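Give me the fold.
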Amino acid sequence: MKGSSIRTEKISKRFGSFEALHDITISINKGEFFSLLGPSGCGKTTLLRIIAGFENPTAGELYLDDREILALPPNKRHINTVFQNYALFPHLSVFENVAFPLRLKKTGKRQIQTTVEEYLDLVKLTAETNKLPQQLSGGQKQRVAIARALINQPSVLLLDEPLSALDAKLRQHMLIELDAIHDKVGITFIYVTHDQQEAISVSDRVAVFNAGKIHQIGTPVEIYESPADGFVAIFIGETNFITGTVREMADNGYALIDTGPIGSLIVNADKKVSIGDTVKMTVRPEKINISAEDPQQLAAHVNVLRGSVEEIIYTGFQSKYFVNVADTLFRVFKQHINCRLNEKSISWKDRAFIWWSADDGYMVEVVHR
């Protein structure tokens, strides 16, 4: 496996009285595409700068392949960074921007020519060799910056919000290219973003940050499907929250929750709970089914509610239904398909049934009695 592992041990960083990072411990594997995800100001870029050597932590340790590197300057860490604003030299051509690190090392002319051509081919810019940065699109500039960062063959590549200046369609295209580049070079990528779609699209694992702390580390599937707490659930996509009291423990690891006006719901007891505990559960909108007619012959452990359709938003590939059940608004996402030709349509203000499996709901917060 190419690249190097990165390990932080109880990294903290204070700026005066403000604590930007608190006891951050992460282990990033060799060759992994690892994302630091969170809202603006949560500390993810501060951690990236500490790994790069541009900031010193207030406390903690930093290891590259089990070697403590906090005392090393940035140019001795074998770690390169791709910045949000590209940081290209405006007076140098694409070729010379990419060649710059090699010229600093006084690499031979023939070797520079061969190596730069190789990396321009990697980022699909061989036709733009002689252009200046101002003649390039935003996506092309970002690819130049990536090629320049990779040409020194670092063990770890840090990417600080590299796609934030691009429009939505170009961001999606660049994400695919970035993932392909990672697959080809095989080194460790650490990617900072506030965009949850970016993080879960390309990452092997994700660390979700908020207010200088890590809330959860896991694969994109784990982060989305099994959020550790309410913050992760709401930050990673849309969701529905329901609060209730554990009324009884059902068979096979399920709990019956008394939610008051909504009624009793069954949920997979994925956290340790006892009768009388207050829990907040979450269920994703796309996990909920909706129908104008009462669903029949459902499997065991399915929650069925009836409410009034308050709003319908058509988004092209799906419709978003907002269903009022006892003054609680449920979001329900329904993908458009053509195989349900006999299904009764649902309109604004209609009464409708919604239902979901207990296995699609998760407890995100528990207050023990």
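The domain at 240-367 is CATH 2.40.50.140 (OB fold (Dihydrolipoamide Acetyltransferase, E2P)).
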